[in-house]
Amino acid sequence: MPETPTREVFAGFGLASEVAFYALAVLTLLIFFWGIYLRVQKYRRGRQAERFDQLGWRILRALQLVARNATLMRTDAYAGIGHLAIMWGFIVLFLGTALLTIDFDLARPINPEWRFIRGDFYLWYSLALDVFGVALLVGLVMMIIRRGFLGLPQLDYTRADANKALYDRKLYIWDDWIFLGLLFFVTVTGFLVEGLRVAQDWPAYERAWSPIGWGTASVLARLGFTPKAGSVAAISVWWTHALLALGLVAFIPYSKAFHVVVDFFNLVFRNEDVARRLPSPPAEAASAGYERLEDFTWKELLDLDACTRCGRCHVACPAQSSEMPFSPRDLILDLREYADAMAIASHTRLDQQRVQDDGRRVLLAARLAAADGVVLAGSLIPSESLWSCTTCMACMEVCPVGIEHVPMIVQLRRALVQHGEIDKNLTEALRNLGRYGNSFGQSERKRAIWTQLLDFRPKDARKEPVKWLWYLGEYNCYH
């Protein structure tokens, strides 16, 4: 047992095993950063957006929201607590791995005396990893129960408004479970590695400072694991843990797991004034609204990737609860599928003829990505869906990652108007406004009839001074 509390990283490993691990780590990082590169290239297709003002304040605000999980806690305490445990557990374990990398791979080769994960630092380091590892595991179990057994409508990807031949959400379900599964088994195997390491020589300091490792080692001892058997098992479990962890890192840019990277930046660049004014039409574009992917800003393309598919906007939307053919979640997912298909098409030279001749079922997003000159509003996003939105901004109010749905909807509607595709009820309302001054098509003379039922005479602001001006609106006047 070493005199100074510490741990050996590659205990029992030969040089070939170490080389193999580092080779896999390099390959993992290449896959990870290639995925990041593809994402950044996608965002660069978007127009400019002024989101860098007051950058320091933006970062502090985002840090505060993320640290407290405030956007989740206010709408769903169970999910908020579970996600908070997962988030902080993940962050601390990631920092622990980063510190170990600095200690073993950077400090040790330069000067072994520079290693810092030993002594008292190691004891607190070990305890912190145990505590936050348990928090991560508890949060994951909570989310597995929530997703697998509670039957929540916001986690149901079924769409009643679209042809099933044109969309497929099975991949989303697999993505959700693979992400949860990888995190769960990385955590469990990490505790097993710790327990098997402790069971080799039972360092006394590990009892208090590695309680989970000590407890795991005690359970393994009761199951009959001897130090010799444990040393063999430790190598197998270590490799299982390492491969799962490396797989998770490589998986991040291509999956739902990417939200751990992008959501913070989405909150940083969120527009606080978005609910106060409508977005301006793109100044440099030929269209008054959004017709093609290139009309979207880089921030809006970032919004699409930030979506975690939590479904809070879906259940908060009054159009969805009224069984109208619209869901803000499905709008974002449709646009994201199209953006991803466009990115694939640009790399693989996907063409329309090839798509039509393919015998497999091809999703609508891929079909449109292979075609030229497609106007998104009315094709990818049906006109009736866009006109079903009431622009109440409930979706934006409940979104935990700051996605700005309504400005995109408004811009897509503008493209519809430019092409003469207006909701028939809106067409009639506009005609009545032009002819009668109200959307009900009623005579202006009838507007004040309701005042005859009052037991007092209201003042006419056009003829005498008034202190308060009470604007009723046309609905109250004609109904």
Explain this structure.
- The chain has 479 residues and is mainly α.
- The chain folds into 3 domains: 15-44 and 75-254, Fumarate Reductase Cytochrome B subunit (Up-down Bundle); 275-422, Orthogonal Bundle (Fumarate Reductase Iron-sulfur Protein, Chain B, domain 2), CATH 1.10.1060; 427-478, no CATH class.
- It is built from 21 helices and no strands.
- It has helices at residues 15-44, 55-68, 70-73, 77-110, 119-149, 170-201, 206-209, 211-222, 227-251, 259-268, 298-306, 312-316, 318-321, 328-348, 352-357, 364-370, 383-388, 394-398, 405-418, 424-436, 474-478.
- The longest helix is centred in the N-terminal third of the chain and has 34 residues, at 77-110.
- The chain is elongated.
- 30% of the residues are buried.
- Mean pLDDT is 84; it is low at 349-362.
What is the topology?
Layout lengths: L14 H30 L10 H14 L1 H4 L3 H34 L8 H31 L20 H32 L4 H4 L1 H12 L4 H25 L7 H10 L29 H9 L5 H5 L1 H4 L6 H21 L3 H6 L6 H7 L12 H6 L5 H5 L6 H14 L5 H13 L37 H5 L1
Write a brief structural summary.
The protein folds into three domains: 15-44 and 75-254, Fumarate Reductase Cytochrome B subunit, CATH 1.20.950; 275-422, Fumarate Reductase Iron-sulfur Protein, Chain B, domain 2 (Orthogonal Bundle), CATH 1.10.1060; 427-478, no CATH class.
